[in-house]
Amino acid sequence: MADKFDLTIIGTGPGGYVCAIRAAQLGLKVAVVEKRATHGGTCLNIGCIPSKAMLHASEMFEEAGHNFKALGIDIAKPQLNLDRMLAHKDKTVEANTTGIDYLFKKNKISVFSGIGSIGSANQVIVTPENGDAQTIATANIVIASGSDSANLAGIDIDEKRIVSSTGALSLEKVPEHLVVVGAGVIGLELGSVWGRLGAKVSVVEFLDRILPGMDMEVTRQFQRMLKKQGFDFKLETKVTEIEKTGKGLKVKVEPAAGGDGETIECDVTLVAIGRVPYTQGLGLEVVGVETDARGRIKTDGAYQTSVSNIYAIGDVIEGPMLAHKAEDEGVAVAEILAGQAGHVNYGVIPGVVYTNPEIATVGKTEEELKDAGVEYKVGKFPFSANGRAKAMLATEGFVKIVADAKTDRVLGGHIVGRGAGEMIHEIAVLMEFGGSAEDLARTCHAHPTMSEAVREAAMACGDGAIHM
Questions:
Q1: What is the arithmetic mean of pLDDT over 14-40?
Q2: What pTM does this model have?
Q3: Do residues 294 and 321 lie in contact, with contact meaning Cβ atoms separated by under 8 Å?
Q4: 445 is catalytic
Q5: Residues near 299 by Cβ (< 8 Å), separated by ≥ 6?
């Protein structure tokens, strides 16, 4: 048995590795257990980071092929080198995952390689791929095992023709026709990658809208933008079967409410219907850690499970499955274990869809405020009236700010446009400090910048925007 630790964390994704580093900074003796060969979890290895590498590369490919001429840059038609693009993606992943190795060493965190499971309330069993299992004695345990791709019943994902997000990041060639099952963030992002590289993209969604949970006005306008980019949408439609043929796939669909079906022929299908918490094999039942009907680990307001010294964070508990949400929870748990008052403000967690244009959102949507009976006002400003956006040929989209009708306190912000993911944070900071639309409207913004549209939207909550 190894030396006893103050804290042992199962999983080194964004939640786990950040929790480990923060706990070590606060003086705790920390161990981590990771089943992968590299740290970083889904996010760094097969999710957030590699997908952003592919999104950026495909955007540059499209930019060179479509916008350069309008900017006075004459070049030959760009040629896709997919192998080199994928190599860039892999290099990006390697740089990020090896960076965590350095941080663990710097903070004197003990690393155990293998599958982690809970042997008792104070023991974590590490089962390596080869060799004997090892038991870690620990005062506290944090479960940060993340999530896995959800699948449709009866569908065999082979990561070649029928793929999850993992396989969609490593296709050997550009599909002629890609069918995306699910119009959520992952499906639209990866669909846009292959669409820019030349694939026809069809999206099948069970619901009557794309990006469920986001502001309806935002998603309606964004769907129109994607249609202009060549996306074909089949909403209120379900997939009943995916048949493999010698040449490709036959995706059988029918109306969600029932009715006559049809068959879509394609060469690759991406199943992107969401993610499920990864809790199997953790030994939760051994110590009596409770889960809910969706398989998520139940916790109190301080991330404590039904077992007093076992905690859980990230995708295995309730809340949005976002890397930065898991990171903040990791910091909060570490601070709680060190005797501090760690917390997460779930009302101010940004969400971003990294398409082109991007969508970024924080706080409440109009629909949520209506359902809650809150009186609110809306300020909007389009990028078509923004000088910097015109100069960059990036005039699609708008900024929308939702504020309390009586107090002017900002309750939500929603942006569709280039760089939306970077611009959303000034709204998040404002909300964190309880700021009003007038506070933002009276804050000087550099000119010319895309962020001026955020200020103008705040002005529109009051007497009106200047440039519209």
A1: 98
A2: 0.95
A3: no
A4: no
A5: 305, 311, 312, 317, 318
Note the pLDDT tens digit of each residue in 122-171: 999 999 999 999 999 999 999 999 999 999 999 999 999 999 999 999 99
Segment 4-27 shows an average pLDDT of 98
Question: Please, is 383 exposed, middle or buried when counting C-beta atoms within 10 Å of its C-beta (0-12, 13-18, 19+)?
Answer: buried
* Active-site residue, from 66, 414, 447, 467: 447
Instruction: Please report, as a single letter, which amino acid is at residue 303.
Output: Y
Tell how far CA 389 is from the center of its chain: 26
Q: What is the CA radius of gyration of the chain?
A: 24
What confidence category does residue 2 fall into, taking pLDDT thresholds of 50, 70 and 90? Answer: low
Tell me: the pLDDT tens digits for 422-441?
Answer: 999 999 999 999 999 999 99
Kind plus residue range of the DSSP H or E element containing 32: strand 30-34
- List of residues 6+ apart from 444 with CB closer than 8 A: none
Percent helix, strand and coil across the chain, each rounded to 5?
Answer: 35, 25, 40
What's the rounded mean pLDDT across residues 388-392?
A: 97
**Confidence check: pLDDT of 391 > 80:** yes
* Cα-based distances in Å from 193 to 174, 212, 225: 10, 21, 15
Average pLDDT on 57-80 reads 95
N-terminal to C-terminal alpha carbon distance within the chain: 69
Residues 6+ apart with CB under 8 A from 349: 320, 322, 324, 325, 328, 362
C-beta of residue 43 within 8 angstroms of C-beta of residue 323: yes
Chain centroid, CA 320 distance in Å:
9
**Domain 349-459 homologous superfamily, CATH:** FAD/NAD-linked reductase, C-terminal dimerisation domain (3.30.390.30)
Q: With CA atoms as reference, report the closest residue to 314 among 322, 158, 266.
A: 322
Residue found under tokens 């003086």: 27
Q: Quick one: fold of 162-273? A: FAD/NAD(P)-binding domain (3.50.50)
Stretch 231-248: mean pLDDT, rounded? 96
Structure tokens at 51: 């997908």
Residues in the chain: 468
Residue 410 is predicted with a pLDDT of 98
Q: Do domains 162-273 and 349-459 have the same CATH topology?
A: no
Residue type for position 18? V
Residue 250, helix vs strand vs coil:
strand
Question: What is the pLDDT confidence band of residue 247, given thresholds at 50, 70 and 90?
Answer: confident
Which CATH superfamily hosts domain 5-149+276-344? FAD/NAD(P)-binding domain (3.50.50.60)
Q: What is the residue extent of each domain of the chain?
A: 5-149+276-344, 162-273, 349-459
